[in-house]
Amino acid sequence: MDMNTRVSHPVDKTTALQMKFADGVLVLQGDLLIGVVEDLIAQQGQAETIDLSGVTQLDTAGAWAVVTLERRMKAAGATPEITGATPLQSDLIETLRQNMPETEINAAHRISIADRLERVGRYAVTSFQKTIEIIGFLGRVVATIAGLSIRPNRIRWTAIVHHMQQVGLNAVPIVSLMAFLIGVVLAFQGAAQLRQFGAEVFVVDLIAISILRELGILLTAIIVAGRSGSAFTAAIGSMKMREEVDAMRTLGLDPVEVLVVPRVIALIIMLPVLGIIANFAGLIGGALMSWIELGVSPGVFQSRLVSNTGVEHLFVGLIKAPFFALIIAIVGCFEGLQVKGNAESLGHLTSTSVVLAIFLVIAADALFSIFFVVLGV
Amino acid sequence: MDEDPIISVRGLVTRFGKNTVHDGLDLDVRRGEIIGIVGGSGTGKSVLLQAVVGLLKPAEGQITVFGENVRDTTAEDYRRLRRRWGVMFQDGALFSSLDVQQNVEAPMREQLALSPETRAALAAIKVRMVGLPDDALQKMPSELSGGMRKRAGFARAIALDPEIVFLDEPTAGLDPIGAAAFDKLVAQLRSALGLTVFMVTHDLDSLHAICDRIAVLAEGRVLATGTMAEMQDVDHPWVQAYFKGPRARAALAQKETI
Fold first, then answer.
1. Is B55 on the interface with A (CB under 8 A)?
2. DSSP readout, B120-155?
C-alpha cells in the first residue's frame, strides 16, 4: 500500500484542522481525526460542496463527521457534494455511509419513576420466588440425605472428611483467636462497669453466660459463613461456569448428592465442634483479662464458673449450631448452583451468599432467643 | 515495500521458569500486510503477541513497534504507543459488566474527551462495521454467541482506528461459515482503515484466504516466513505436515475452485 494515501493516522505528526466557509463551499484542511470531530459537527452552516482536497489524514470518526454534516445539510434541503477526497478517503466515507444508522443514536436513556417502581416490584417478586426456591432446595437436600441413610454405601465419606478439614480444622485458628479476643473485650468492658458497684467478681457470670449462650456460637457461625459459605458458592459456582455440573448430570451423578450433601453434613458436624472450641477460647480470654484487670485468679474464676453458671447455658448455645450450619451450607450451595455463565454472576452471588447467610443466622438466633424465653430456659 | 518494518522483533528470548519459549526469535511485519503466525501448541504464538504489545517482559531481545522500543518506554510513551494498536483476545475478552456499546466506547472514554452522543454514534458505527446487528449494542457479553463476542471484541479493538490490530485466534471456535465471514471482515476493514493485521491462527482457510505472509514458529524461533505457496517448499517436517496434510490440501483445493 502506498504510504501517502494511508487513511488512518500516525498520531505523532498532526496538522491542525482548519474549516472555512466560502461561497457555499466548506473547505476542510489538515487532519480530520477523532480528536477534532466535535468541533466539526458543531458547524451549523449550509454549503453546496464539502471540499476535502486539503485533508491530509482522515479516520473513521472524521469520515463520520463528514457524513453527519452531509446528512444534516440534506435534511435542511441542500444537496451537498463531497469533493477532493482521495480514492481511499472516498472508500472510507462510503463505508461509513453504509454503516451509519439512519437516525442519530441517543446516549443512555434516563431512568423514570415508573422504571424505579417497576424495579421495586420485580425485586419483591424475585425475592419471594427465591425464598420458595431455597425452601425447595432445602427439601431436596433433606430428601437426598434421607435416601442416603437407606443406602449408606453411596455416602461419599472421602468428600465429607475433606470438607470437614476445610471448614472445621482449618478454621480453628481464626475461630479461637476471634473468641479469645471477644472474651478479653467482655472482661475488660464488664470490669469497667462492675467495678463501680464493687461487684467485680460477677464478671465471671457475665463472660460465661454471654459467651456460652450467645456470642461463642453466633460469632463462630458468622466467621464460618464468611469463610466457608463463600467458599461453597465460589467452588460450586465455578464448576457450574465450566459446565462441570452439567457434565455430572450427563454421567448420571446427582449434583446435590455429590456436591451439596457432603458439604452440608461436614458443616453440621464441624460447626458445633468449632462452637465448643470458641467457648473454650472465649473463657480463657475472659479469665486472663479478669486476672490482669481485676485480680480474679484463674482458680477463683474456675470455681465461680462451675458453681454459678448452669450447664444449660452451654446446651442452649450448642443446640443452635447445627441449625446455623444448615443455613450456611444450604445458602452457600444454593447460590453456587445459581451461577450463570459469566464471571460477574459468580462474584455477585458469592457476596449475596455471605450476606444472606449471616442475615439468616442472626434472624434464627433471634427466634431461638424468643423460643428459650418462652420455654423459660 | 522496502520501508522500515512496522513491527520488528530481534533476538527475542522469553522464559517461564526453566522453560524457554522463544530462543532468539526474529520477525518483521510490514506496514499494511496481514501476517499469520502459525505453530504447534506451546510454540509461543500467543506469548509472542503478548511480548509485542508489552503485556509480558521478555528475558532478552529487542521489540520495536513504529520504530519505538516497546521494552524501555516511559509510561507516557507506552500510553501513546498503545493508542496506535488494538488487541482482540481469543474469546473477545469483553468486560462482562458492560454491554457491547459500553465495551466499544471504553477505549474512547479512556483516551479522549468526547461527548456521550459522539461516543455512542461512533460505537454504533464500529459495531455495524464488524457486522453485528444494532440490537447487539445493548446486549451484555454473556448474552452473545461466541462468534458475536469475537466480533464485538474486534469492534473494541478498532474503536480508535488503530494502525495495527493483533488478533489472537480470531476464527477458533467459529463454524466454517462464520469463520469465512470473519476473514472477509478482516480483509475488508484492512483496506477500509488501512490496517496492519498481526494474526495468530490455526485456521488454514484463513491463512489461504487473507494472509499476505505466514510466519511459522517452531523450536523457539521463526522457522520460515513467506506466502502460502512458498510454505509448500519449506523443508521441515512440521511445516511439511502442516501445509501438506489432508486439511491443507482441502483448503488449497477449495481456494482453487473459487
1. no
2. HHHHHHHHHHTT--GGGGG--GGGS-HHHHHHHHHH
* Nearest chain B residue to A12, by CA: B80
CB A13 within 8 A of CB A30: no
Residues 6 or more apart whose CB falls under 8 angstroms from that of B147 comprise B174, B175, B178, B182
Task: Specify burial of residue A171 (Cβ count, 10 A radius: 0-12, 13-18, 19+).
Answer: buried
pLDDT in tens, B91-107: 778 888 888 888 888 88
Q: What whole-number percentage of chain B has pLDDT above 70?
A: 97
The 10s digit of each residue's pLDDT in A156-193 is: 999 999 999 999 999 999 999 999 999 999 999 998 88
Are B96 and A100 an interchain contact pair (Cβ–Cβ within 8 Å)? no
* Residue A313 Cα distances to A201, A309, B182, angstroms: 19, 7, 71
3-state class of A77 per DSSP? coil
CA–chain centroid gap for A106, Å, is 31
The 10s digit of each residue's pLDDT in B122-179 is 888 888 888 888 888 888 888 888 888 888 888 898 888 888 899 888 888 778 887 8
3-state secondary structure of B18: coil
3-state SS class at A296: coil
Angle at B6 between CA B242 and CA B128, to 5 degrees: 80
Residue A162 is predicted with a pLDDT of 95
Measure CB to CB from residue B118 to each of A37, A92, A106 and give the nearest one: A37
CA-nearest residue to B1 within chain A is A1
- Other CB atoms within a 10 A radius of the CB of residue B17 amount to 5
Q: Are B54 and B8 in contact (CB under 8 A)?
A: no
pTM for the structure as a whole: 0.67
Residue A106's pLDDT is what? Answer: 52
